[in-house]
Amino acid sequence: MTRNRRLLLLSASAWAVTAGVAAAQDPTGPVTRVDDVVVTAAPYGVARDATVIAVDVLDEEALSTAPSGSLGDVLNGLPGVRTTAFSAGAGRPVIRGLAGPRVQVLTNGLGLIDASSLSPDHQVAADPGEAVRIEVLRGPQTLAFGGSAIGGVVNVIDGRIPDRAPADGVEGRVWTQGSEVDDGLTFGARANFGSGPWVFTVDGLRREAGDYDIPVPAESRRQVESEGEVFEDTGATTVENSFVELTALGAGLSYVGDWGFVGASIKRTESDYGVPGHAHEEDPLAPPPVDEEETVIIGLEQTRYDLRGEMRLPSGPFARVRAAAGYADYTHTEFEGGEVGTVFTSEGYEGRLELVQVRRGGWDGAIGIQTLTRDFDAIGDEAYVPQTDVSELGVYTLQRLDRTSWGLEGGLRFDSRDLDSVAGARDFSTVSGSLGVYFKPTDALFLGASISRNGRAPTEAELFAEGPHIATRAFEVGDADLDVEEVTSLEGTLHWIAGPLTVDLHIFNADYDGFIDLVPTGAEEDDLPVFQYAQTDATFRGLEAELAFVAWSQGSDTLTLELGYDTVRGETDLGPPARIPPWSLSGRAELEAGPWTLRGQVRHVGEQDRVADFELPTDAYTTADLFVGWTPNPAGGLTLFAEARNLTDEEVREHASFLKDLAPSPGRNLRVGASYRF
Q: Cβ distance 321 to 367 under 8 Å?
């Protein structure tokens, strides 16, 4: 990247909305509403600081200045959350050391019907740039979403089907940002238009980024030395084939009345991104070397249709009924040297119907039913999972009793899952339940404890895989005789507000019976080590803590100091599981002074030397970020911002990533941007 090109990029990003400054001075602009009710936790909604479930929320204000990137990258650094960091295009959330099918990613409460949980090089078909809100639930107390949420839930809420009319007939947001480290440029816009009971939405997102810069050679010292070679530090380089181009377009139409709303939406997503690391040589876990013309590029296409509605009921035991349904047609094509290598397809429907009870005497509740039909297929050199038809049915109830100084919350769910493949057929039935109790000895203190028992049916890959999986650098073999994976979890929760001090603490222990793990057999096939899916007992335990202290305040101006810590330790009867993130400690200071926001953060991630077979340790690292934002009208309108990330140009390798020793995270990065709400 040339210096002039970078300057042009950054200038263009800031200029794109600066023309709206005059309009931003209008004091009648929209007011940001802070809403801590978490709809993902339960159909009736619960407050974030009044539930035993561990929750984090990114609202539209936070997302408007968040870095452009994959879902995993944007959420990385939240308590207990990391990223698979497979490439700039493919990063899925890792929650409490769990990834893949154990973390369910939703859009507006329904599954994505993509193939992102199948492999770490598969992109999530929901970009954070589309979201008006992202809710992250950590832990298995998420019965509304079934056994696939055994590790946690990430719900991307896009607002494409509005449930209310805009206050002044029209509202929306445009935003843009540019980044120096990858010559990246992102532009997005959304708008809601109201005419009587009809509300129309339209939105679009375009993200482009080139190969990103790193402060070190892409291949780590540990990797080179493990091959018996001498590491040569050649200084700053670029991660080749790490580009990403994404376009997402959507529209929705709702009819909103006093009785509720009903609406429909359509979204088209197209993405092309490179997969770095495939040309690595000398690695015993890598595929045979390829030349530069055979780099792997992935093209993702998905068309999705959704229906959603809610009706308020005038009488009876239920206050309202909710319904949602989605259909998606997804294709993931892997190009090798310009030729089609493997094509993954996923087509299916998912539906949900919920009846929300009338609140009586502090008692809330809901019952629901969920159904899914999905057809998965793979054709080509890397079609290691055969064609499989999947059908699921779940019924559940969630209940909560809230008294003045104590309360109970819990739920029960039954699931059935049928898998019909050319390699065989299996059907599973699981029962999951949770019970939590909480006490509020004072208005400032919330103490909670919960126990849950969850079951997860095996996936098509765990059952029927048979072939080379280049992304994981293994020849994977499924086991059609796998049983249900079950986990018993205990969690303690503390929320405390004492004047200027806020404390949020979660401690957890999860014991797995029949934990499904991918373990080496010692054999070799197609020049790759053979890994077999097998079941064992496992334990995951950890701690997540957040502290915030308002050190100074004067009117609306404040100085807030924050501290965060998280750790998770995994153990199985076969040894440590692979890719368990190390502990992390972060400190942040944020000053709100008039139109200015100044924020500095330092984050230290420890080394990880408790590793599985065929896995290298990861060194510790420390990063520093500095953010400045300017919002001339505190009621809303224009925001201009700039941020320097990884100021010290640190070598960052995420232990949860399969590519940590071949493709580290980006180096020092300056990004600038603007957001305008109207």
A: no
Tokens 């329904």 correspond to 110
Residue environment code for 137-172, b if the CB has 16+ CB neighbours within 10 A, otherwise e: bbbbbbbbbbbbbbbbbbbbbbbbbbeebbeeeebb
For 456-509, the DSSP string reads EPPPHHHHH-EEEEGGGTEEEE--TT---EEEEEEEEEEEEEETTEEEEEEEEE
> pLDDT averaged over the chain?
90
Q: Can you tell me the distance from the alpha carbon of 625 to that of 216, in angstroms, rounded to the nearest whole number?
A: 19
Q: Which two tokens stand for residue 346?
A: 């996923």
Determine the 3-state secondary structure of 334 from DSSP. strand
Residue 280's alpha-carbon distances to 220, 223, 233, 618, 654, in angstroms, are 12, 11, 17, 19, 18
- Per-residue CA distances from 263 to 170, 371, 448 (Å): 18, 20, 38
CA-CA distance, 630 to 108, in Å (whole number)? 31
User: How many angstroms separate the CA atoms of 365 and 411, rounded?
Assistant: 9
Q: Residue 96: its pLDDT value, please?
A: 96
Which residue is it, tokens 């049983």? 483
**170 and 195 in contact (C-beta within 8 Å)?**
no
Nearest partner of 387 among 409, 435, 419, 358, judged by Cα: 419
What is d(CA 399, CA 401) in angstroms, rounded to the nearest whole number?
7
Residue pLDDT, tens place only, 54-72: 999 999 989 999 999 999 9
Q: Measured between alpha carbons, how far apart are the two ends of the chain, in Å?
A: 35
Backbone angles phi, psi at 461, to 5 degrees: -70, -45
Q: What is the mean pLDDT of residues 562-567?
A: 98
- Distance (Å) of CA 586 to CA 495, 545, 563, 652, 670: 19, 11, 6, 15, 21
Give the pLDDT score at 294.
67
Strands (E), 574-664: 584-593, 596-605, 621-630, 638-645
Q: Which helix (H) or strand (E) holds 12?
A: helix 3-18
% of the chain with per-residue pLDDT over 90: 82
Distance CA 322, CA 355 (A): 6
DSSP string, 222-266: HHHHHTT--------EE-TT--EEEEEEEEEEEEEETTEEEEEEE
DSSP helix/strand/coil, 189: strand
Query: Taking a C-beta distance cutoff of 8 angstroms, is the pair 640, 14 a contact?
Result: yes
Residue 634, C-beta contacts closer than 8 angstroms, at least 6 positions apart: 556, 595
Which of 9, 65, 192 has its CA nearest to residue 638?
65
What DSSP state is assigned to residue 360? B
* Integer CA distances (angstroms), 6 to 184, 210, 498, in order: 9, 12, 47
Residue 43: the pLDDT is 87
- Give the C-alpha separation, 575 to 534, whole Å: 13
Q: Rounded to 5, what percent of the chain is helix, strand, coil?
A: 10, 55, 35
Q: Does residue 488 carry a pLDDT above 80?
A: yes
In the numeric block, which tokens belong to residue 79? 């308590």
